[in-house]
Amino acid sequence: MCDLFVMGSSGTGKSYIATALGYRVCQKGLKVLYANTSRLLGQLKATKVKGSIL
């Protein structure tokens, strides 16, 4: 498993590069989680409460 966080100023192509990389990974049969910070933190909180993993 490998984690990737893409950070930068508005309009610098973060979404574009993250989508392109995610698409290539999916083509290889692997799973991708594409989330903004709010969604990611919400999911992490929910899994902590349930005691499970994403």
Automatic annotation (TrEMBL):
Give the UniProt keywords, A-Z. Answer: ATP-binding, Nucleotide-binding
Question: What residue stretches are annotated with the IstB-like ATP-binding domain?
Answer: 4-53
Q: Which Pfam families match?
A: IstB_IS21 (PF01695)
Q: Which residues form a coiled coil?
A: none
Matching InterPro entries, A to Z?
Answer: IstB_ATP-bd, P-loop_NTPase
**Molecular function as annotated in GO:** ATP binding
Protein name per the record: ATP-binding protein
